[in-house]
Amino acid sequence: MTLVTQEGILLRSHPYSETSRIMRFLTPAHGLVSVVARGARRESSRGRGGVETFDDAAIVLAYRESRDLHTLRDLQVVRSRRGLGKDLLRFAGASLLAELLLAHTLQEGSVELFDSVRESLDRLEGVERGRLPSEILSGAWGVLVQAGYPPELEACARCGGDLPGEGLLLFDPVAGGLLCPGCTQGREGGGRLGPGAREALRRLVRRRPDAEVRGARVHLGLVERFALHHPAPSRPLRTVALLRPLMEEAGERVRAPGDGPRDPGGDGRSAEPPSSLDPGQPGSY
Ligand SMILES: [Zn+2]
Question: What pTM did the predictor assign?
Answer without folding.
Answer: 0.84
